[in-house]
């Protein structure tokens, strides 16, 4: 399969921007491609600010930072960087039609040896691989948010993913300073998000059953279980609509009513109360996004 020197990251959003910097810091020539110039500008600014803070705190030297930025390119041209890519990490919007179109295009534009990986949280490789003529070189390489900080990556193989692709992806993840966990069988949500989902569902059952309040459940999770934040706080952080859409998509696939979004989550989504980003969710937030202590928006 040859060596991996050049990486192409698709999408410069929350995940793509940081994944790009992780690659550049690890010594790879990295191109970050997005359709939207505004997303690229935002990504560049965010990474400059983030690395400036890391330099200030002594976690990164100025020389390392400058070398990483010298290896990092942002652009709206796909053809040029794709032609040189040894490995692609797709982190575009979570829509299957967009991803399948992108993978078909990448299959046409990248060299035959290139591995095409998706950072998708929900779509397994087999939903995407058959859009390409190289399904053996398609897998999930799933980072966690914030990608610069979180060490774990899940590598998910589909039925057609080759051993060689898995080996090369594991080796790449290690070079990026990550701890890869390989899943040999595909399942929506993989491991981390399934466990997170189970905790979230139980928390909602306890709430809707009138057993404990939002604040009580979050407090127990933080102070008894050592979670960095409670399940309701986490839903507010990631966006209540994200979990809602994931569950709806899972229900559409399974037809199992257990997979439907819960009553209280549906109510919040219908009211547009999606968490921090809208100022209200399970809790209320001030205009800087800080939780207004002692005022859970919903205390059932
Ligand atoms: N946000 C998370 O916490 C998280 C964690 C792990 C994995 N993921 C996955 O990462 C992917 C990206 O998520 P995100 O949160 O960074 O999304 P985001 O909305 O922040 O960014 C998506 C970017 O993709 C760009 N885009 C859309 N269509 C494109 C196309 N055809 N070509 C190139 N760029 C395109 C958009 O302009 C946008 O900048 C999703 O598949 C998601 O499931 C997200």
From TrEMBL:
Leader peptide range in chain numbering: none
Residues where NAD(+) binds: 11-16, 34, 94, 99, 121, 145, 277
GO molecular function term, any single one: oxidoreductase activity, acting on the CH-OH group of donors, NAD or NADP as acceptor
Pathway(s) per entry: Lipid metabolism; butanoate metabolism
Domain of life: Bacteria
Residues covered by the 3-hydroxyacyl-CoA dehydrogenase NAD binding domain: 7-186
Family as reported in the entry's similarity comment: Belongs to the 3-hydroxyacyl-CoA dehydrogenase family.
Record carries keyword Oxidoreductase: yes
InterPro entries according to UniProt: 3-OHacyl-CoA_DH, 3-OHacyl-CoA_DH_NAD-bd, 3HC_DH_C, 6-PGluconate_DH-like_C_sf, 6PGD_dom2, NAD(P)-bd_dom_sf
Keyword Transferase annotated: no
Pfam families, sorted: 3HCDH (PF00725), 3HCDH_N (PF02737)
Sites marked Important for catalytic activity: 142
Database matches in Gene3D superfamilies: N-(1-d-carboxylethyl)-l-norvaline Dehydrogenase, domain 2 (1.10.1040.10), NAD(P)-binding Rossmann-like Domain (3.40.50.720)
Protein name in the entry: 3-hydroxyacyl-CoA dehydrogenase
UniProt keyword list: NAD, Oxidoreductase
UniProt GO BP: fatty acid metabolic process
3-hydroxyacyl-CoA dehydrogenase C-terminal domain segment(s): 189-285
């Amino acid at each position: 399969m040859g060596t991996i020197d050049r990486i192409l990251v698709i999408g410069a959003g929350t995940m793509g921007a940081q994944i790009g910097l992780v690659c550049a810091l690890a010594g790879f020539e990295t191109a970050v491609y997005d359709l939207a110039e505004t997303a690229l500008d935002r990504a560049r600014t965010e990474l400059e600010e983030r690395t400036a803070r890391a330099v200030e705190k002594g976690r990164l030297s100025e020389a390392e930072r400058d070398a990483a930025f010298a290896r990092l390119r942002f652009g709206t041209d796909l053809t040029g960087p794709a032609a040189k890519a040894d490995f692609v990490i797709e982190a575009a919007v979570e829509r299957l039609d967009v991803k399948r179109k992108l993978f078909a295009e990448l299959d046409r534009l990248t060299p035959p040896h290139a591995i095409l990986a998706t950072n998708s949280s929900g779509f397994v490789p087999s939903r995407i691989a058959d859009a390409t003529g190289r399904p053996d070189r398609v897998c999930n390489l799933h980072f966690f948010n914030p990608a610069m900080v979180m060490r774990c990556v899940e590598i998910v193989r589909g039925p057609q993913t080759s051993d060689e692709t898995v080996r090369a992806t594991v080796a790449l993840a290690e070079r990026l300073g990550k701890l890869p966990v390989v899943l040999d069988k595909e399942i929506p949500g993989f491991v981390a998000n399934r466990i997170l989902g189970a905790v979230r569902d139980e928390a909602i059952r306890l709430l809707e059953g009138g057993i404990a309040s939002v604040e009580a459940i979050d407090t127990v999770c933080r102070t008894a279980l050592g979670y960095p934040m409670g399940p309701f706080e986490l839903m507010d952080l990631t966006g209540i609509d994200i979990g809602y859409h994931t569950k709806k998509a899972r229900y559409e696939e399974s037809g199992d009513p257990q997979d439907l979004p819960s009553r209280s989550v549906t109510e919040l989504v219908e009211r547009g109360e999606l968490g921090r980003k809208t100022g209200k969710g399970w809790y209320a937030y001030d205009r800087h996004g800080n939780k207004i202590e002692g005022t859970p928006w919903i205390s059932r």
